[in-house]
Each structure stands twice: as C-alpha cells, then as structure tokens.
C-alpha cells in the first residue's frame, strides 16, 4: 500500500493498514453532493447540492418525508449506490479530509465497515438468512482483522452480549429467522460496531419496530455512541425520535437541505416554512385538544422539480420571487441555516 | 375452551350516557397451527382471547397495542369478515351470528371497514367510481335517489376528492388520496360504525393530518362511530374518546382518553406510554422511561396467569397463576377498567391542554379537502399530485379526460366547498 501525505491520513500502522485521524474532531465533510438517477422517463434529481459536516461524538439527524433523499444521501456516503442508474455528477464526501468519491475501490471497501458503518431499516433482508448470526459477526473479524475462527467466534459472543442478546453463548449458532425483529436489529448493530467504526449511519433503524422496542434500540445506540465517541447520523422521519436523541438536525426536502440547526432551536423556532408546517401537523402524546393542520399537496416529482424554491407550490408564504429564484441555504442566525427567501419573517413568526 | 374472565359487557362504558351501538362480548379467535405433511393441528395462535367492550353512538374508541397483539383480527371479527371461535358481536342488541339472510345483510351494511394500506387494499383494475360504488351494487336495496353515479360523486366530494376523477384508477392517486378513496367506500352505505385498521399508518406525517382531520369532520357530519385501530399512541390520543390497550390478545386497560393517558394503572400501558417519543427536545432527560425487558411472548403459547407477568417489574407470585380481570379499579381520581392485580396510577405523560391554541395557518391549514382537489378547483398549477406525477407515472388519456368531463354533473352548479385561494 502506498504511503501518502494527504491531511488526516497517518501512514501505515502495525498491521500495514492506513489509519485515519480526524482533524479538529471533524469526521465527515459532505460538500455540494449531487446524485441523479438515469431512468427511462428522464433524469431524476434525487440530491441537489447537499452539504453538511459531522464531528466526533456528534449525533446528527437527517429529517425528511418519504422520497426527500435521506437514504440516497446515506448510500452515497457509504459508497453503496448502484451506478448506473445512479450518477454523482458533482460533490465530495470527505472522511478525515480524504474524498471517498475519488478513492480507489479497494481502499473504499476497507473504509466501509472499518471506519464508516451503516444500519438499515430492514434487518431481516440485510442479514444473510442461510448463515448463523454469530458466524456473520465473526466473519467481520476474520476478514478485516485476520482473526482465527475461535477468537472471532469469541468476539462475536462478546458483541452479542454487548447489544443485550439474552443467552448469547447459546444463540450464537442461531439463524436470523429465529430472532424477533428487535433482536435482529441488535445483531445488525453488533455487526456495524464490530470493527469500531468512527462513523455510524443508522437509516430508519426503528421504523419497523414497536415503540417499546424502539426505545430499547435507541437507548442502546446512544450508549454505544457515547462509549465509543462515534459520530452518529440518524436518518428518520420521526420528529419525536430526533427530539430525543440528536444534537443537530438537517431537514431535507426534494433532495436539498432546507434547514440546519441544533435541535433546541429547530423545535423552538424553526426557520423554514416546511419545518414549521411539519411541527403543526403532528399529534403529540402530551397534548390534549390539539388542532392539527396539514401541509397541503405532495413533495414534487424529482423529474420535474418546480423552478425557484422546490417547496413553493405547497408554501402558504410563497411570493412571486419564490417561483423564480432558488433560495440558497444561508446563515440566518448564529449556527442556523435556512433556504427560504423569507427566513427572517419565519423565525420572527 | 380458553379461560375467559371478563366484565359483563353491560358494565363497560358507564361513563358515556349515549346508547350502545356495537358490543363485543368475550370475543375469541384462535387460528390452528398445522404442521407436518398431514397438516395436523398441533396448537393454536390465540390472536384474540376474550375481548369485551361497548361502542357508543358517534364515539371513537381507539385500540392500541404492539405488533401481533390481535388488533387487526379484532377488527375483522367486528365486521364479521371472520367468524369468532367464541363470543359474539352485537349490533344494536342483535347478535350477528344469529342473524340470517336479509337480517345479516342489513347488520353488515351498518358496520364497514377501512384498511391500512392504501397501496394494496384497492383493486388496481377498477376505477375509483367502481371501487367506491361497489358496496352499492352489493346492497342494491340502498341505492340512493339520483342513482349510483351521483352518489359516488357525492361521496368523493365528501372525502374532499374531486368528483371529476370518478373514472381514474388507484395508481393515479397518491397514498393520502387513496386512503380517502378507501374511506369513501367505507361510508358509501351510510353505516353507523366504521372500523378503521391503521388508516393513517402508511402515510407521511403531513398527509396524516389531512386524513385525520377528514375523519373527524365526517364523524361530526354523519354521526359515525369509529373503532380506530393503530399502533401510534399520539394519533390515537388525538382522535379517540375512549381507548383500549391490547396485549397478547387481551385488553389490558380500557378507559376515557385522559384516564388511560394521564392516569394509567396497568404497568404495560405505563411502559408503552413512557416509550413514545415527544417532539420536544426540552423534555429530554426529564421524562420517565420505563424500559421493558425481553420480547412479547408468542400468542401460540401465552404465559399463564397475567400475560404480562414475564416482563412486568411488579409481578408477584399470584400473577403467574391468577388471570387478572378487566374490572373497574381506582385510578387516583375515579376508576376505570384495568386488568392488573396491583393496579395503581402512575403518571408518565405530562399533559398540556392546548384546546385554545390555534395552529399557525401561515404554515399549514386545517382544510380537510385534498389539496390537489383544491388546486384543481381553483385552477392553480403545481399542487396536483401524482396524476401527472412521479409515482403515479400515468398521464391522463384524452378518453379519460373526456369521460371525466362528461361526468361533471353536480359540479357545474358550483362546488359546494369552494374556498378562497389560501395563499397571500
Ligand atoms: N435506483 C433508483 N432509481 C431511480 N430513482 C431512485 C432510485 N433510488 C432512489 N430513487 C429516488 O430518489 C429519491 C430519494 O429516495 P430516498 O430513498 O433517498 O428517499 P428517502 O428520503 O430515504 O425516503 P423514505 O423515507 O421513503 O425512505 C426518491 O424519489 C426515489 O424514488
Ligand atoms: N389468518 C391467520 N392465521 C394464523 N395466524 C394469524 C392469522 N391472522 C393473524 N394471525 C396471528 O394472530 C396474531 C395477531 O395478529 P393481528 O394481525 O391481529 O395483529 P395486529 O395487532 O394487527 O398486529 P400489527 O400491528 O402487526 O398489524 C399474530 O400472531 C398473527 O401472526
Ligand atoms: S422561499 Fe418562498 S416558497 Fe420557499 S419556503 Fe421560503 S417563502 Fe416558501
Ligand atoms: S397482574 Fe401482576 S404481572 Fe400482571 S401487570 Fe399486574 S402486577 Fe404485572
Ligand atoms: Mg429511506
Ligand atoms: Mg394489524
């Protein structure tokens, strides 16, 4: 393997592998990311210039409704988009200062799993049904760390215990279908953290689960993150989950970020009409006699995103300028960004 | 026979004075488990195992509980899509199992169901007109004055859809619009009871609010009673007058909305409520979280005694053997139904009354009509959904357009619900 002088990369450790160290705690820099899908009907612009950062120990939520581009963003960071049909015409995903998009394939594969790991919504289809779960976890150690079979197996048991699988020793040989949905998600988490990644991306990790199980999984994730100082990207459409666990949140709409803020500001005083509308439309467990209001209409067709602000057909504040000029994501208060021409009015509302 | 120790149905619902319209009495549904090549029955899934409650005229009874606890099975028993293994359903005092022929048809007409998945519950090869009108064909005796087509258009209008779209197919509508079609079909025969099985669970949050508001409006206008089945405790609180909490085929707790949410006495309800995230970061770390250990046991082999005892932090010896009855138990203020030997109130939700708080109409609105319909009526561009859009994929053909136009009978006299352009 070549040594290199790129920032952030410490050449060759004892095992001959390159290690990455964050500069000033910065793990990820996603810069002006664009992703499009080439379909029979035309080019679907799924991601249209997304930029954000992630620091060590930080929980960042990506919030958005169905189709807004949350999973595609995660897949682009992980390097698991199918290309074609996907294409990344522009942008960078820097991990410890090194652009993953231009990295050689073999190195990228190594980064994936060892440095950046991901948990998917549907644990059943992400685990291999024909191998015992313990074997699947152990394989991570054998392939990446060159461990022998019995050591790897012992590590697998230890990890299964860490994610609170009861009787882990006995169940290490069990198959995925022999576990409940919540248990399978724990096993996915065990696999994801096996190699001590610096970044963990969780794409709707609890959407398919019951609330009591969701609570178990979220508290496990938070615990692991604190214990290992991981950077966590939590993808969800659930405003309640974001309020419970995230430090900072970015709100996506039609493949763009419409707002970024720390969660306290975001809920107390949103700076974008879409975020405001979302908060008006959700029923709250702790409120009685609530009147719900909905955002009209639907998110746009990605083949034909409206000119100007993509939210303008549904926005009750839209003016003529919104149908022509694309609002840039700009700083509207300290540490807060909004992509609305009238963000100041929204904040003051 | 399973053990059934339940309150008399007549005891339930004491808190509401209005008349009982639908009554579930000791309902049981066991599904046989068949194994081996001989398909011998080796056990039973006890999906619903002794459920009793009364539903009153015009009220909403929410049914909550986690996956597999028997909510959908209960829904199917109530509309008699399936026959119960034991127990009965009475509509206005008449036992549905004993009714026959015409009687049964009349009973069934009054209890309709709306399903969860707007993507699979509508036949893709039928037009919206045929889907909504089908119940009228099955019950020709109720065909309304003015004919079927007029009735279907009225129904579409009632659920906030554009009556001109009577000839379109389900795939030309968005999820929220499809759920409206399901509701229109559900109310076609003017039923008194609508069973809704997760009617908004598949929808995006902003669209959920449109459909929930629509359902509330229809209830006011038509005097419908709802059994609203869902796993989302926040939506259920919002829409329900009374709430039943199910665990492994049985009701754990049943009471008025604030009795269950503010003064729950069953440990399972308390754990469930404490696990629901609230969209307010300032409450972080301030709310009590009761983390349950382990998983829900299999309904094929439910624990003896109290079904919750394998996960209950309060369980005593007696809980392993004695089935706790669902009876009125003190909740600190009054009493409501709870199936726990050691029922005691524990507040896990800090409720704020926001009855007087109006939503900020600059950002979202309370109009119950489909926004694409409003836009079409107002001639605004851009708001219409998948009709010419992404998931819908299909453009309207000129023939369809012509058919749509020719069906425009009631619309010409002016749209009944016409509104001003809401935007500045
Ligand atoms: N392989 C593909 N080909 C074409 N379009 C795609 C493909 N994968 C994703 N898309 C489109 O990209 C857009 C963004 O999808 P994405 O999966 O990121 O949404 P999401 O925000 O994760 O939504 P959800 O909450 O439903 O998971 C969608 O409109 C989707 O249809
Ligand atoms: N036709 C059937 N044959 C056998 N078992 C069934 C059948 N229908 C349901 N069950 C079982 O009965 C139990 C209750 O199922 P049901 O669908 O009523 O639960 P639910 O509360 O609606 O769950 P969910 O929230 O997942 O919709 C489950 O264990 C289920 O597997
Ligand atoms: S830019 Fe205009 S249309 Fe977009 S959110 Fe702001 S006010 Fe609404
Ligand atoms: S009866 Fe016993 S096991 Fe059941 S909920 Fe009450 S205390 Fe817990
Ligand atoms: Mg997704
Ligand atoms: Mg169900």
From TrEMBL, chain A:
SUPFAM superfamilies: P-loop containing nucleoside triphosphate hydrolases. Residues 28-279 form the ABC transporter domain. One of its GO terms (molecular function) is ATP hydrolysis activity. One of its GO terms (biological process) is peptide transport. Keywords: ATP-binding, Cell membrane, Membrane, Nucleotide-binding, Transport. It is found in: Cell membrane. It comes from the Bacteria. PROSITE patterns: ABC_TRANSPORTER_1 (PS00211), ABC_TRANSPORTER_2 (PS50893). Transmembrane segments: none annotated. It holds the Pfam family oligo_HPY. It is a peripheral membrane protein. One of its GO terms (cellular component) is plasma membrane. Belongs to the ABC transporter superfamily. This is Dipeptide ABC transporter (ATP-binding protein).
From TrEMBL, chain B:
Residues 22-273 form the ABC transporter domain. Keywords: ATP-binding, Nucleotide-binding, Transport. One of its GO terms (biological process) is peptide transport. Pfam families: ABC_tran, oligo_HPY. Residues 379-424 are annotated as: Disordered. It comes from the Bacteria. GO terms for molecular function: ATP binding; ATP hydrolysis activity. The keyword GTP-binding does not apply. Residues 410-424 have a biased composition (Basic and acidic residues). The keyword Nuclease does not apply. Belongs to the ABC transporter superfamily. This is Putative peptide ABC transporter, ATP-binding protein.
């Amino acid at each position: 393997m070549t040594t290199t002088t790129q920032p952030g990369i410490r050449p060759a450790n004892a095992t001959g592998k390159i290690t990455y160290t964050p500069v000033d705690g910065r793990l990820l820099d996603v810069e002006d990311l664009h992703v499009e899908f080439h379909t029979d009907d035309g080019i679907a612009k799924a991601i249209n210039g997304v930029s954000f950062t992630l620091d060590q120990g930080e929980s960042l939520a990506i919030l958005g409704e169905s189709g807004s581009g949350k999973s595609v963003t995660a897949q682009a960071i992980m390097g698991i988009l199918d290309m074609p049909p996907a294409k990344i015409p522009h942008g960078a995903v820097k991990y410890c200062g090194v652009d993953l998009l231009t990295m050689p394939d073999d190195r990228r594969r190594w980064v994936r799993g060892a440095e950046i790991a991901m948990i998917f919504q549907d644990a059943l289809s992400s685990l291999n049904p024909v191998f015992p779960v313990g074997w699947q976890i152990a394989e991570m150690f054998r392939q990446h760390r060159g461990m022998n079979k019995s050591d790897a197996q012992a590590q697998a048991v230890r990890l299964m215990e860490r994610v609170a699988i009861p009787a882990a020793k006995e169940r290490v040989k069990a198959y995925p279908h022999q576990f409940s949905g919540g248990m399978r998600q724990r096993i996915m988490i065990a696999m994801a953290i096996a190699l001590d990644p610096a970044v963990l991306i969780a794409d709707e990790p609890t959407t398919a689960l019951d609330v009591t199980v969701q609570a178990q999984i979220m508290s496990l994730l938070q615990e692991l993150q604190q214990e290992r100082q991981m950077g966590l990207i939590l993808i969800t459409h659930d405003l309640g989950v974001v309020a419970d666990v995230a430090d900072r949140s970015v709100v996506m709409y039609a493949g763009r970020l419409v707002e970024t803020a720390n969660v306290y500001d975001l809920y107390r005083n949103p700076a974008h009409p879409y975020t405001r509308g979302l908060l008006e439309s959700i029923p709250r467990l702790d409120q009685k006699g609530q009147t719900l209001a909905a955002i009209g209409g639907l998110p746009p067709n990605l083949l034909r995103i409206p000119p100007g602000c993509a939210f303008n057909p549904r926005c009750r504040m839209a003016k003529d300028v919104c149908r022509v000029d694309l609002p840039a994501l700009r700083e509207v208060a300290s540490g807060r960004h909004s992509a609305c021409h009238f963000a100041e009015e929204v904040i003051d509302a | 026979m399973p053990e059934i120790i339940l309150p008399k149905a007549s005891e339930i619902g004491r808190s509401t004075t209005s008349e009982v319209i639908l009554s579930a009495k000791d309902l049981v549904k066991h599904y046989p488990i068949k194994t081996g090549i001989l398909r011998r029955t080796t056990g039973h899934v006890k999906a619903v195992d002794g459920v009793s409650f009364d539903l009153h005229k015009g009220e909403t009874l929410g049914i909550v509980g986690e996956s597999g606890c028997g909510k959908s099975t209960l829904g199917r028993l109530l509309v008699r899509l399936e026959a119960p293994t034991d127990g009965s359903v009475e509509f206005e005092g008449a036992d549905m199992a004993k009714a026959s022929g015409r009687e049964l048809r009349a009973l069934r007409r009054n209890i309709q169901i709306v399903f969860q998945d707007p993507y699979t519950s509508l036949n893709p090869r039928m037009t919206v007109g045929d889907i909504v009108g089908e119940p009228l064909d099955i019950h020709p005796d109720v065909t309304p004055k003015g004919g079927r087509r007029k009735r279907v258009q009225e129904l579409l209008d009632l659920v906030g859809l554009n009556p001109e779209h009577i000839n379109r197919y389900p795939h030309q509508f968005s999820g929220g619009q499809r759920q409206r079609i399901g509701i229109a079909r559900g109310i076609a025969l003017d039923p008194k009871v609508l069973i809704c099985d997760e009617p908004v669970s598949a929808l995006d949050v902003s669209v959920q609010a449109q459909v929930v508001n629509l359902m509330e409006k229809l209830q006011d206008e038509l005097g419908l009673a709802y059994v609203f089945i869902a796993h989302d405790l926040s939506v259920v609180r919002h829409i329900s007058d009374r709430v039943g909490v199910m665990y492994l085929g049985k009701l754990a707790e049943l009471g008025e909305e604030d009795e269950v949410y503010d003064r729950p006495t069953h440990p399972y309800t308390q754990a469930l409520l404490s696990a629901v995230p609230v969209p307010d970061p300032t409450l972080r770390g301030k709310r009590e979280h009761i983390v349950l250990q382990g998983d829900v046991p299999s309904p094929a082999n439910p624990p003896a005694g109290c079904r919750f005892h394998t996960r209950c932090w309060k369980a005593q010896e007696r809980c392993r053997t004695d089935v706790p009855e669902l009876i009125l138990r003190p909740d600190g203020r009054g009493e409501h139904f709870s199936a726990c030997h050691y029922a005691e109130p524990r507040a896990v939700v800090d409720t704020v009354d926001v009855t007087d708080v109006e939503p900020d109409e600059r950002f979202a609105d309370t109009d119950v009509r489909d926004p694409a319909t409003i836009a079409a009526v107002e001639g605004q561009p851009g708001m219409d959904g998948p009709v010419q859009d992404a998931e819908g994929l299909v453009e309207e053909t000129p023939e369809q357009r012509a058919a749509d136009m020719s069906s425009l009978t009631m619309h010409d006299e002016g749209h009944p619900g016409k509104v001003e352009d809401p935007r500045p």
